[in-house]
Structure formats: C-alpha cells, structure tokens
Design brief:
Serine Threonine Protein Phosphatase 5, Tetratricopeptide repeat; single chain; 72% helix; disordered N terminus; 370 residues; 1% strand; zinc-finger; metal-binding; TPR repeat; TPR_rpt
C-alpha cells in the first residue's frame, strides 16, 4: 500500500525506517513501518524486519487510554520489557551478521537496537554503547571509517562519564578501536587497543574465557600481518586451547546429562531425537558465529602453512567438529572430525586421539539414528 505523506494528519510524519527521510511505502504486514524506496524496504526485510514485523505492530500501535493508574503502569512496564527484548534480539542478530561478514545487512538491526535503546534508556546513557559499537563495527567493515570514528567517539565519551561502567563494555570498545586502527593500517596503535581489550576482558571474565579469546585472536592477526609468525602462532595456540577446553567441557556435560536422562526414562542414548533436540552449545547465535569466524580463520591459516604444527591443526579441526555437533550440524561435524584425524596422524597424544575417536563414534551413532 502506498501512502502519500502530504495527506497525513497535521503533525504526523512518516519517515523511512532506514534513512529517516519522508517515506511513502508502508509495510503491508505491520502497517506501522515506512520506507522511502523499495530498495530500503528490501534491505530492512533482509536485515531484520521480517523477524520483528509482528512485534513492531504491537509496539507502534496508538497509545490506548487506560482509566486506572494501575492499568497504565502495568501496560507501560509490559511495553518497556517488550522493547528491551527487541533491543537484545536486534543486537544479537546484528552482531551475528558482522561475524559472518554481512556488514551491510547488519545495519538495519543495529539501527533498530539503537533507536529503541534511546527510547527506553534515554540519550547519552551507557545502555546505548553496545549499539554504538555494533554500528561502528559495521561501518569499519563497509570502509566508512569516518562514520565508525563518530560512533566510537560517542561510545568512548559515554563510557568516560559513567564511573561504574563494566570492564566488559570497555573491552568491546577497545576491540572496536583496534579493528579501526587495523583498517587504517596503524598496526602499532591496533596492538595497544587489543592489549587493553584483553586486559579488561580478563578482569571481567578471566584470561582463559572464550569472551577473552577474541582479543587474542585479533592481536594474533596483527602479528601475522606484520610477519611476526612466532608471536602470532603462540597466540593462535592460546585461542585454540581456550575453545578446546570450552567445547570439550560443554560436549561432555551435554552427553552426561543425556545419559542421566536416558537412564531415568529408560530410553536409548542413540536416539537422535533424545540427544540432538536437547543438546546445546551454551552460546547465543552471535557467539556461535564468532566461534565459527575465529576457528575457521585459524584453520585456514594453519592449513596453508608449510611448516604447520600438526597438533594445532588437528585441535582446530576438532574444535570446529565439536562446535558444529553442538549446533546440530552433524555432516559438518563429521567432515571436520575426519580432517582432525588426518592432521593428528603425526600427533603423539593418546588422550587427544582417544577423545577424537570417541567423538567420531558419537557422530556416527547420531547420523545413523537420524
């Protein structure tokens, strides 16, 4: 349905969801979202709108009058909670797309999260920073470095005037600053910021946490580009080890829980429905995408190194195999499991070899059962 903005009631503006200029195309689903062109409508649909159309229909409907104060407060709190859920969902989706290299597609979700964060929390509050950082990362990926600097400046200023800002948020700021300096070719400044990222993340989560591993990974990439292979390889090894410990522990806990449940219900462990419907990576969609990005990048680097360390390659493949298994992609899990077996032929580590063999048996059982 096309809408003529000049025919709107006085004081009512129809603005494009993406660029905020006057709009004349209405979404036929929610009927509360507008666009200046079919191109922007399509971009928003791909980015996030198809996933939130019904939610926006609820959030953007005209405010109803409730006679009692209690009803008004109840309605207000319900709407605020709905908006907060939308903010988190949009941020997770946008971050997932960034890890997948879909920088342009991530922008609509990032913009939506920022718009509703301002609506819920107000202007210049610390709760806006995650959206600023996502917008900055998208801008870096698109080569819009000036725009990225503007978003990072807003995030930095907000953090500076928030004394109780968490180190987790500071870590994300420094990581984005590091990525900005990498894009500028200033590797020394990038290393300084990645070091600050690791420092803050380590304090918040620990030095061997998967949320700290991203800082090690990006710092290793800088050393790799500088030709400082020994340092880069040692940091990649640390990233591999962190993810191996996390994924192996998560898989073990999942399988143990399923065995207990199977015994309780007197069901066979081999039932794909029993195991695969309940198993979880413990990560959200963005974290899964980050894990794939990090581990796949290291795998590609290790696979093409003429003097590669066989154990590092084997463990990276095993990491990817476990990750895909936990995500429910059995074919990819088996594919990387096989690659790990090939790479581990020269590895003298009985514990690792046994773990890999047991994992492959588990994959086979699930594929057959499925």
């Amino acid at each position: 349905m096309d809408v003529n903005p000049l025919a709107n009631p006085k004081g009512v503006k129809l603005l494009c969801e993406l660029c905020r200029i006057p709009a004349f195309i209405q979404c036929k689903g929610c009927k509360v979202t507008y666009y200046c062109s079919r191109e922007h409508q399509k971009a928003d649909a791909v980015g996030i709108h198809d996933k939130v159309c019904s939610r926006l229909a609820l959030l953007r409907q005209p405010v109803q009058f409730w006679p009692s104060k209690e009803e008004r407060e109840k309605r207000y709190k319900a709407m605020q909670l709905e908006k907060i859920e939308l903010i988190e969902m949009a941020r997770t989706l946008a971050q997932k797309m960034l890890f997948e290299g879909k920088h342009e597609e991530s922008v609509p979700a990032a913009m939506l999260s920022l718009r509703y964060a301002i609506d819920v929390y107000g202007v210049s509050t610390i709760e806006l920073v995650p959206s600023y950082l996502i917008m900055a990362e998208a801008s870096i990926g698109l080569g819009n470095l000036v725009q990225a600097e503007e978003y990072l400046a807003k995030a930095d200023w907000t953090i500076l005037k928030t004394p109780d800002c968490t180190k987790a948020i500071k870590s994300r700021l420094y990581r984005n600053l590091g990525l900005l300096y990498v894009a500028k070719g200033d590797f020394q400044e990038a290393l300084v910021n990645f070091a600050d990222d690791i420092y803050n993340s380590s304090h918040e989560f620990g030095t061997d946490d998967i949320r700290t591993s991203g800082g090690y990974f990006h710092m290793a990439n800088v050393f790799f580009r500088q030709g400082r292979r020994d340092i880069a390889d040692s940091m990649y090894k640390q990233v591999i080890s962190i993810w191996y410990e996390y994924l192996n522990h998560t898989l073990t806990v999942n399988i143990s829980a399923q065995e207990d449940e199977s015994r309780r219900k007197s069901k066979m462990l081999n039932s794909a429905k029993t195991l695969m419907e309940e198993i979880s990576s413990g990560l959200d969609e963005a974290q899964e995408a980050e894990a794939i990005q990090i581990l796949s990048s290291i795998h590609n680097i290790k696979e093409h190194q003429p003097d590669r360390q066989s154990k590092d390659l084997a463990q990276t493949c095993h990491n990817l195999a476990m990750l895909y298994f936990l995500m429910g992609d059995l074919n990819k899990a088996k594919e990387y499991g096989r690659k790990s077996i090939v790479a581990s032929d020269q590895v003298k580590d009985d514990k690792f070899s046994k773990s890999l063999v047991e994992f492959m048996k588990l994959c086979e059982r699930q594929i057959v059962s499925n």
